[in-house]
Amino acid sequence: MHPPHDHDHRHHPETAGRILWLATGLTLAYAGVEAGVGWWAGSLALVADAGHMVNDAAALALAAVAAWLARRPASARHSYGFGRAEFLAALVNSLALLALVAWLTVSAVQRLHDPQPVIGEAVSLAAAVGLAINIGVAWLLSRGEKNLNVRAALLHVLGDLLGSVAALLSGIVIAFTGWTPIDPLLSLGIGALVLISSLRLLREALHGLMEGTPFALAPEEVGRALATVPGVASVHDLHIWSVAPERVMLSAHLVVRDLRQWEAVLDACHVLLVERFGIQHATLQPEPETRIVRWLRRPTQRHHRESQ
User: Fold this and answer.
1) What is the C-alpha to C-alpha distance for residues 158 and 93, in angstroms, rounded to an integer?
2) Do residues 74 and 7 lie in contact, with contact meaning Cβ atoms separated by under 8 Å?
3) Three-state DSSP string of 17-28
């Protein structure tokens, strides 16, 4: 008997979707409050933080939709299911973060050239409440599944949490010293941190969409491990890719010394892939060693005849 392949595409519990929708509602609700206070108080850091929260809400909603799609079963038209929607959501979220960083940078530079008065006390109070909400949302997300899609949403929230910290510090400094450049300077600092994380997320999303081998796996190591299975002479045409952030696929051709032992070899290979590499879905094609040996010898024999 072959080990059962993992054909269940519902890798995301429904509670994850509910948590994402709850986080979306909390984030969007306070974004409006923070934007109003920031506009009235003249704080770019607070307005930027509110804009980031709106961006977060969109990211969380997108993550929730992607999680719902990923739970849908496979169909005749989509035999692998809809798990790749999570890569698309991560891609869109990373691009949205980059756009936000660009806007924040331009606004901060303009504010440095043309300082504006800021009401530090109001900024500090609003930022403190926003910080508490962001901590709560981050805590909710951290209790869910740690896949690429949720990590993308959590990255948005953590970036916004840092934005709330920056706005809070900005308000305190301005309230006690009146030094307004701290507001755009902190905004630039937060933008730099978000930029680094966004580029990393964009790289992972594009890599997944291009069906690249997951970064945590080395194809050479997997191939060498398969070649050590008793009865396997060699491995070739090895391919590893992801159809969803947490669903890795593998296909390979195995040169087998004795095809009569293929059932035992196949079972051992599946056990190895699951236990050592976490690969639950593998398609393995056996090839008899005698055929490969004949194929390798053929050019030599032909060359020998031609030389005569």
Assistant:
1) 14
2) yes
3) HHHHHHHHHHHH
User: Which residue would you say has higher pLDDT here, 307 or 106?
Assistant: 106
Q: Which of the two residues, 211 and 141, has the higher pLDDT score?
A: 211
Ordered domains of the chain (ranges, CATH): 14-209 (1.20.1510.10), 219-307 (3.30.70.1350)
Tell me the average pLDDT of the chain. Answer: 79
Instruction: Report residue 131 CA to chain centroid gap.
Output: 24
pLDDT score of 48: 66
Contact 74, 81 (CB under 8 A): yes
CB-based burial, 5-37: b 16+ in 10 Å, e otherwise: eeeebebbeeebbebbbbbbebbbebbeebbeb
Say which amino acid occupies 37. Answer: V
Spatial neighbors of 143 by CB under 8 A, at least 6 apart, are: 19
Q: How far apart are CA 102 and CA 209, in angstroms?
A: 25
Confidence class for position 297, pLDDT limits 50, 70, 90: very low
Give every strand in the sheet of 281-288, ordered side by side: 232-244, 247-256, 281-288
The CA distances from residue 145 to 14, 152, 245, in Å, are 11, 12, 11
Residue type, 220: E
